[in-house]
Design brief:
This protein is mostly helical. 66% of the residues lie in helices and 7% in strands. The protein has one domain. The protein has helices spanning 31-44, 46-54, 58-83, 88-93, 95-118; strands at residues 5-8, 11-14. The chain starts with a strand and ends with a helix.
Length: 120
């Protein structure tokens, strides 16, 4: 691979162009789980973070991770709510109890997803 240079004043600077982002992830937000993954990579997986960053794959990785995590959280919430009989009947009967149980289920689902997808 041959690099070409352009002279600016007394200096020669390389003509480097960043590759385009994939069309699937271009302009998409990385979301809550993508930000969690980004912080984890920066603090605990520095080599992987640098590799993704240098190969222009970091944003794509974060968007994909956010999508997977969100889908898994939603599936787990539905599954756990069904197992524990937290449904619309309970919501109509006792709203406060329904909110408490749904918050508990959501927190457990997010903890499971973080341990399986985000912090790996």
């Amino acid at each position: 691979m041959k690099l070409e240079y352009t002279k600016y004043g007394d200096y020669y600077l390389p003509n480097i162009v960043m590759p385009e982002e994939s069309k699937e992830t271009k302009g998409k937000d990385i979301g809550k789980y993508g930000r969690l993954r980004l912080n984890f990579l920066k603090e605990h997986k520095r080599v992987l973070y640098q590799d993704l960053l240098l190969n222009n794959k970091l944003h794509e990785h974060l968007v994909k991770t956010n999508g997977e995590a969100q889908a898994k959280v939603n599936a787990l919430i539905n599954e756990l709510a069904k197992e524990e009989n937290v449904d619309e009947k309970l919501k109509a009967k006792n709203l406060l109890e329904w909110v408490q149980k749904m918050n508990n289920i959501k927190n457990r689902a997010e903890e499971i997803v973080c341990n399986e997808i985000i912090y790996v």
